[in-house]
Amino acid sequence: MKRYYNEQLLNDISQRIDIVDIVSETIKLTRKGNRYWGLCPFHEEKTSSFSVTPDKNLFYCFGCHAGGNIFTYIMKRDGLDFTEAVEMLAGRAGVTLELSNRNRKEDGTRKRVLEVNQAAAQFFNQMLLSSQNKLAIDYIKGRGINLDTISQFQLGYALDSWNALEEYLLKKGYAQQYIKMSGLIKRSSNDRYYDLFRKRIVFPIGSYDGKVVGFGGRVMDDSLPKYLNTPETDIYSKRKHLYGLHQARETIRKENQVLLVEGYMDCIKMHQNGIKNCVATLGTAFTIEQGVLLRRYAEAVIIIYDGDEAGQRETVRTAQVLQEQDLKVEILTLPSGKDPDDYLELYGKEEFLRYIQNNKITYLEFKINKYINQAKEMNFEAQKTIINAVKGDINALQSEIEVDYYIKNLAQKLRLEQGLVYREVSSKKRDVLPISKNKSSKDRDNIEYGNYSLEEKILAAMLKDPGVYARIQNTIGIDFISDPGYRELISQCTHRGQLKQLVQVEDEKISSTAARLEFILEDIEEIDNVSIDNLIRQVAMTKAKRRQRILYHKLDILKTEGDFNSIMKFILEIDTILNETREGGYR
């Protein structure tokens, strides 16, 4: 339930809690000067790159670039949304959050429905393990599920009874209105209530922190519907949850990768086999909310859906949603007719992990293969259709090396000249190659200037001095900023006072970027006019060299095709850039 809190309240909470104490609950910190350093809790590393500044209540990792304030830290560490992080820290700080009567009533209702769900989960679990329900436990064991896994996932069984669950919950003292609100009972035509689940294996669905928010039920034979889920309620929306996330989140965070499957059983068997960074969708199309949820824990996702036509369609849709969240997406297609449950049963964990490593492909490779496999014959129309379908993806790639790889790959599969494919893909002119979002990449165009890049030095100078900001605007402009995060930030922020406000925002990306700039501003000294001139000149030269590299790449392709007029045009343009670079002029 999203709520809004004013800046004064957030500052009050921040001032009452020492971020060093919070971070020290997870990692060991060592003081160096006015900062504390330790191994980052959000990615694996051997050298401490995680820094905490207690007087500003900020943290920043110079390795994975996670950063922000105390609220951001709790959101990322515990997988909470902003409201949940504020409520948690307010409780620790002893700050009372004023709730309206309506909010207080809603909180009370949610609490009671959650209690009903937990009691129902316990009932279903007891019924599964009861000696009277041998058919159910035999079914579970026949699927290769052991007792430890039954306990870990609270698996259960719904009796073949009209209202056994309802009677149990009423005897336990739960009001019928809350049982009804949980979605576990339904009203019949003669105005009586009956249990939603009957003669089904039951899968409790947990929130990120393990609270039971809903249920899924599966038949043990071929009757329909095969799966049945509790309806949308005040505490449960299929769009906002992922099966197995509570069990998987610590491993996901540690490995910085998620394995995404379709079914409850697939997810459960993965965990039982020691592959614990796995979650499953809940029988609906993958949603933006689920993508946002995964982004809190990891930067990479491997999609392992069914290999049939429906599964492949949903793979494409899911990959698109995940890419919109800036997640690295890879896809694994299992042999025909197999799902993860089947594969693990046949070959075991080690072979499954080996298969993933050897057969996962990028989303773009998957998309290219999909269109090529759909083409009945590789004629002109098919070639044109495939290039048009994927050229947007290629133009959005992060580096020149990736662009070259996919153009060669596509040209080979389409049986076309590489230069022709390059021109078709580049019909929307690629004046500037995209720069990797990974600031630690060796392929970056940013020039290191001390401990920070040239780009970051200039941004810091701009935020410190409005005069420098105007000067940059009037010479090289702000399009020199290659990092998307900095580009977004500078569009919202023209001085340091605004930067401090952006550290407080809910958007994790903006908050993290703002935190890094705060660290830079604290580290660097004032920059004089001569230094500013040198920085501007370096940016101009970097832009010229980047343009020069692009032209050389195009020239190499044109040489193989003997396009003399275009070759001469590019040579003249390269010569002009070389002269400007030698003269150190702005462009």
Describe the structure in your own words.
The protein has 587 residues and is α+β, with helices and mostly antiparallel strands. It folds into five domains: 7-93, Zinc finger, CHC2-typedomain (DNA Primase, Chain A, Alpha-Beta Complex); 101-236, Alpha-Beta Complex (DNA primase DNAg catalytic core, N-terminal domain); 244-359, Dna Topoisomerase Vi A Subunit, Chain: A, domain 2, CATH 3.40.1360; 366-425; 540-583. It contains 26 helices and 18 strands. A five-stranded antiparallel β-sheet has the order 1-2-3-4-5. Helix 13 (309-324) links the parallel strand 14 (300-304) and strand 15. The longest helix is centred in the C-terminal third of the chain and has 33 residues, at 529-561.
CATH superfamily of the largest domain: DNA primase, catalytic core, N-terminal domain
Number of separate strands: 18
| Highest-level CATH class of the largest domain | Alpha Beta
| CATH architecture annotation of the largest domain | Alpha-Beta Complex
Q: Briefly note the CATH topology name of the largest domain.
A: DNA primase DNAg catalytic core, N-terminal domain
Number of helical regions: 26
Tally of distinct domains: 5
Specify the structural class.
alpha+beta
Shape: globular
* Spatial order of the strands forming the largest sheet: 1-2-3-4-5
What is the terminal separation in angstroms? 50 Å
Query: What is the CA-atom radius of gyration, in angstroms?
Result: 28 Å
Q: Determine the fraction of residues in helical runs and give it as a percent range.
A: 40-55%
User: Overall pLDDT, averaged?
Assistant: 84
Main sheet specs: 5 strands, antiparallel
